[in-house]
Amino acid sequence: MRRQIPFALVFIFGTFMVFQYFVPHETSEWIYEYLLDWIAIIGIFALALGIWSFYKVSVDKIKDKNEDWPYSVISLSGLFVMIFFGFTARTGESWGFYFPALLILTAGLGMFTMAYTETSSSKSKTSAMIGLGLIVVFVIISIMDNSWNFYFYTQEGLKNIAFISFFEHIMIPIQATMFSLLAFFISSAAYRAFRARNLLSSILLIAALIVMLRFNPYLGPVSGLMADGADWLINVPNLAAKRAIIIGIGLGIVATSLKVLLGIERSYMGKG
Amino acid sequence: MLLLTFSDIGLIVTLVIIAAGLGLILKLALKGKEIDRRIIFIFIFFSVASPIIFQIKFSEKATAVVKSIYDKIDNLPEGSKILISFDFDPAMAPEVQPMAIVLGRHALIKGHEVVFMSLWTTGQSLLTEIINEYILPDFPEKQEFIDYVTLGFKAGNEGVLKVIATDFKKMFPVDNNGRPLDSIPIFDGVKSCSDFDLVISIGGGKPGPKEWILFVTDPSNIPMAVGVAAVIAPQMYPYYPAQVLGIMGGVKGAAEYESEFIGNYERFKDMKTPGLLTMGPQTLAHTVIMAFIIIGNIIYFRKRKKEAKS
Asked: In A, which residues are within 8 Å of B252 by CB distance?
């Protein structure tokens, strides 16, 4: 029964969505739009599930003292701090006890995590009690301090300077740095890989050089001459190959979808 | 009298150093010696850092694939509705952010009504930053809700697109500030994406331009333009020109658009052009990579010759 119900749901809704596309009737459109609302709801559940999964994986790593477990502590701190920033904003002239409150909250949540990861039951109880105490202190501060407030229904938190600063000065540089490092590895890889070992690799090498030359404003007249060749490479062989791949992927998606609908492909259900 | 700018001197010094270094490496290559990858890294670092320090810029000319986007925005009647989706994260931003800035400026200067949104969670902050720091300071006369509106990020990936393709307000009942869309003048007469005169997706990941084409613009026959990271551009060409009217690929695409824009709008002649500026490092790095590829092949053939002899 645990398996049959999901199979039946997948078959009914999947088949409906397939046939609905070809039925331009008002009722069909209404059901379709009604089902689309479900996507948003499922999306929200998936978000909650994702956060829980991330928390669980990180806590388990800390508990088992896996390799690089301190990184999990940093990840969890980042998660809690950004959630806090995202739901709060300054209302007064100064920040008041905003940052001490954040520290107390983080410490409290940290103590709860320690209580969960601790093997000794007495230590676990102590950690949980301290954690609870810190949370109570945090709640009292957040009630008494009028210089900041919680915003759960509006997007005030997203304009919080702390939230913006963390994003702009930590998140953006980190991601940009990771992506920028690719330039070095791609260069090294290009030097080693682009060698005229045989006819096919020679063609690839020449094509790559023509396209790179075409995008190079240093080499004005040469790039002018190369432009036609590069355009032909992009618009003819590249396009032909890409279209073939896209059509192949499309047919593959149809085949896989049919297998899922008919219950032949069941890996999406996990171990079941 | 020959007047050299700081940038010119920087370019000459950079080229001389790189040429000398490559010449030295070529000499070693002719002896059949392989190059350590750390040497390649140093060259790439120098070729990327130097144009940034010396602010080296090149002139660009818009190619047909970019010009078609420019012409579309330029020729739409004033007050046309344009939807711009910021579907990228900070990793992709250096490549596609210049596109977002120049497209926003172009749409606003032409008097179009612009709706900004994002399908990426990290896109929301980038969107706010780009609009507030780069676009709006040039347009103090433009009013929120009348000339532009920010819808922010909506979770749901392709699900969001499926819904807004038929009913925009179902997925976005309020804007970024919690104001109902029904009370926003830009949304008068807007039921779905079909009511926009142009949709532009800037990004390269998933969901991104491809999903916009598949779920929204192609089924509803809405004019669509895309701005994508360079590695994604070849994947977009199969959709050009039937499904997308133009493609801006990577920094090159952004630089071409910027050069067309500043060339035609005197007011923006001296504006910051991050696309054109980033073309400096990219061009120099590409030249160095090409040189290393050629050197690598020289080494390969020298070795093969040696092996054949022995």
From this structure: 215
